Amino acid sequence: MDRIVVVGGNAAGMTAASRARRLDPRLRITVLEKSPTVSYSTCGIPYFVAGDVEADDLIAFTPARLRNERDIEARTRVAIDTVLPSRRRVEGARLDTGERVGWGYDRLLLATGVKPRLPEIPGTDLENVFSVTTLEDAVRLRPAVEAAERVVIVGAGYVGLEMAESLRRLGKGVTIFEARNQVMPSMDADMARIVEYELERHGVGVRTSSPVDALIGGDGRVTGVKSRGHPGAAPADAVLLDTGVVPNTALAGAAGVRIGATGAIAVNEYMETNVPGVYAAGNCAEAFCIQRRRPVIHYVGTVAAKQGRVAGENLAGRRSRFAGAVGTTVLKVFDMAVGRTGLCSNEAAAERIRAVSARIEAQDRAAYYPTARRIWVKLIADADSRRVVGAQSAGYGDVAKRIDVAAAAITSGLTVDALSQLDLGYTPPYGSLWDPLLVASQALLRKL
Amino acid sequence: MDRIVVVGGNAAGMTAASRARRLDPRLRITVLEKSPTVSYSTCGIPYFVAGDVEADDLIAFTPARLRNERDIEARTRVAIDTVLPSRRRVEGARLDTGERVGWGYDRLLLATGVKPRLPEIPGTDLENVFSVTTLEDAVRLRPAVEAAERVVIVGAGYVGLEMAESLRRLGKGVTIFEARNQVMPSMDADMARIVEYELERHGVGVRTSSPVDALIGGDGRVTGVKSRGHPGAAPADAVLLDTGVVPNTALAGAAGVRIGATGAIAVNEYMETNVPGVYAAGNCAEAFCIQRRRPVIHYVGTVAAKQGRVAGENLAGRRSRFAGAVGTTVLKVFDMAVGRTGLCSNEAAAERIRAVSARIEAQDRAAYYPTARRIWVKLIADADSRRVVGAQSAGYGDVAKRIDVAAAAITSGLTVDALSQLDLGYTPPYGSLWDPLLVASQALLRKL
Description:
2 copies of one chain form a homodimer.
Chain A: E1 3-7, H1 11-23, E2 28-32, H2 45-49, H3 55-58, H4 63-70, E3 72-75, E4 78-84, E5 89-94, E6 100-104, E7 107-110, E8 114-116, E9 129-131, H5 135-147, E10 150-154, H6 158-169, E11 173-177, H7 189-201, E12 205-207, E13 212-218, E14 221-227, E15 233-235, E16 238-241, E17 245-247, H8 250-254, E18 278-280, E19 287-289, E20 294-296, H9 301-315, E21 329-333, E22 336-342, H10 345-350, E23 355-363, E24 374-382, E25 388-395, H11 399-412, H12 416-420, H13 436-445
Parallel strand pairs in A: 1-2, 1-7, 2-3, 7-18, 9-16, 10-11, 10-16, 11-12
Antiparallel strand pairs in A: 4-5, 5-6, 8-17, 13-14, 14-15, 19-20, 21-22, 22-25, 23-24, 24-25
Helix pairs in contact in A: 1-9
């Protein structure tokens, strides 16, 4: 009866545990989680903060249900600090009692996720300064922002923008400070402008090219944000830091598990690390980029869950492979859907791809149909291979569909020529005779 | 200054004319159309009948605008009855005056579309019996159905189902008679049942396995429908025939243009017929099926428009190729979206594919998100190659996205294994951590 130990009970870890259980009912499966909760939707946190859903709605399985329905032992508030590969054993402490605890394993999965990368500026330790990577963080954040009038968000990545919407919908004054000259650094500047417009339309202050130098406070509590290029300090009753995350690799590193050039745990396509019997999956691990043919880091739940599923199959004795990812992400920013897949222009340039791009504006369905909405689609191609290498879209209509189709096209290595004739569905209520993706392909073909 | 003549001014014909004009401003381009209108959205007709849009909304270009903005001469109510390839000339009659007219051409495009295939039963010539393939038909139909209380629709294809919704929304009693044992013959029976449920939920009578033997009338006007297996006659103030269409090939055939085994005009990938200088495109022409590697007929506007675009480029002197289609269609049936792409089970069986399928039910986005809706997804794979060969979906949520992604996967020849790990976008408002397509792929993998 093999013993499977999983460190980390979120997207990758819980998916792996559940998948292993499904494939082998005899395994002894233990999931060890530092936070008070396992098996919740991290991506749902902004909707919890906005009050659309309750925290419980985001939790798929409690430890009790995992035990009863899946025969998985999930232990929360257990902080593993030691892996002893030679003894196939993990050790740590119960956070409630401080008691030392340990588990032997036959196969171990590290699914330790990420931690916030806090900026190196004064004041991040002030009261009412938050970062949100876990549900626990969000539960702490919510009463504080409810009591606040003015919230400053530092950083304009996905979480920052989603939280801007959530906080605005709670009636808060919201200002975003972003060091770079655009929001959404994983998109091209021209597409990011469209998102900035939507933020501003909904009363969010957007301060790009505005690195934050200090959080200032009084009586130990944050009161404002000082940023280069802005006189005085922007007042803030609470500050949310969305300044990036880094993989949690300390446990792995101390155990002799190799950390890749990206800073995340190096794994092969079976999600195996260099240490026998030790696997890694999720945002603490590298993910193979289908386009760049090398490992990268994707901080998204979908990749974490897919890696977890592959890891779970292999923990149960299969030889399943993770196929890799193309960097697909979508998000909602007020009334606007935003998405990207493949490489953006900067990323293509970094790969020395001779990139050509075209951006079009179109209705997302028959223009005469009452629910038609405007979207923008940008496509990027490799002028040498003619392959589609990236797609970005934003707008008030069905953006997610175009991003997903583009993700399939990029994964398959379709050329712009092939994409431009793709047999996509059409009926006036759900699409256009010439889908915006096809129109964008046509525009791109004129430049190739 | 080459003369381009296009017979038929709808999806394929107008797209071709516009594309040719864009590529070569010197061409003399004439479009000859039998009906009173060119350049309208055939797919929008049900929404005109329902009163969602006006007829004018469906018309993209009038002849005046085509002349002024695109330098295209569009002549309506001109019925071409003769092609003289040896003299490179077409001849016909003005329907208003009866006057004989003719045009010389250097290159001719036949985009003559389809005509209804009327059932060989008594009564189809009664008053208030309609078929709808043109906007003109719909304009005639609308006052008649507005005055009707009970409408019978014969045939449960796309148009029949869309019109059932339109008429029901006008408050009419609607009954559909379908000879086969399911609606939507291009979908599998289990998926068709889901659509039948939706029709019945909205008060549409669905009579499958009910071939209509006769339309009966009084004073020359239809009063009812007699069907095998039903005692008496179903009363009807109007009857709409959706008993299929056939390509308009008489003109082509008489000119020595080869008609293919499908019954449509045979064309090569350049949309050339066997007769030098004569092209064909749209629903009168065969379309190459990417999966079956042979010509088929697709009666959809998207394929017609794509063929028209290719034909237009070649009319202007390019050598563009039509890549083929995979049979993607989507439609709206009341609150339900319905779609299919690739081969359905019957079609796969006809190709001697060892087909395996799986159907799943899922929420179309994060189950806890307030706008999550239920959809069903069915995937069909070739057990030998493991390739995805078909996808069908129906439900109250985002069906079109899954169908389009499946269309891209099928076109690219993706295996179920590859589809099951496709990097699709996710955020709770627009999708699921495990997209329903991925879940369906996983279900299918268990059977392969």
